[in-house]
Amino acid sequence: FFEEGRKRESLLRAANQYGKTVAGSFQAYCHATGRYPDWWPGRRFNRPTLGWIGGLSGVAVRDAAQTKLLGTPGDPASLGTAMVPKELIVPGSVNAARSAPNGVDSFLVRHVSGGNSRIVFKTYGQGAGDWQGPTVDWIWVDEEPPMDVYNEALARLTGEGHIFTTLSPLLGRSLLLLRFIGDLTPQQEKDRGAVRATIAEAEHITEEEKEQRRASFSQAER
């Protein structure tokens, strides 16, 4: 998934609780801070960036991406205990959102090159019109957005910009999913990359739980 980030558009699809949001938040952290690990195979920004993170609703964004990046919502002592450490969060820069209690609208992150990156949280419910505006370096959409929102997000990217999606394919072979796994032209294959993670890659899930889930999947299919 990180390697596919060399392309303009990348996608990670997997079932719930398999680690999609963790992967997305780590990529967001790297792009915002410039602190890429030595093994990093994907796109790199060597300057401060503007990044947008989108989700289904204010509550969904707060409970998923925001929590993974900043810590437990509503707990000041938790700020900086998640993906972005406290020393990299610019003091006084965390702005409250109106879309959900204890939600965050935006915050600033120190970039390794000097200067600050800005991360802004958005929702799909605000509609494509709210996704208009400035040029953006990277965009992470966590779970599937409507196509008009996705297309508007694409239009916001800089020339070297990157949009990455993490989703569980609850909508089946949707227009967005087919954008990555349908019949693609050579140029589209160059611009878009998709990865599918299975339960075998979910190393945080015990083997016993994996067997239980496989059994429940088989029973559901029958």
Largest sheet: 8 strands, mixed
Mean pLDDT level: 90
Described by the principal axes of the CA atoms, the overall outline is globular
Structural class: alpha/beta
N-to-C SSE string, H for helix and E for strand: EHEHEEEEHEHHEH
Neighbour order of strands in the largest sheet: 3-4-5-2-6-7-1-8
Low-confidence stretches: none
Approximately how much beta-strand content do the residues carry? 15-25%
State the end-to-end distance.
32 Å
Helix content: 25-40%
Quantity of strands, as a count: 8
Radius of gyration: 17 Å
Report the total helices: 6
Offer a quick outline of the entry.
The chain is α/β, with parallel strands linked by helices. It has 6 helices and 8 strands.
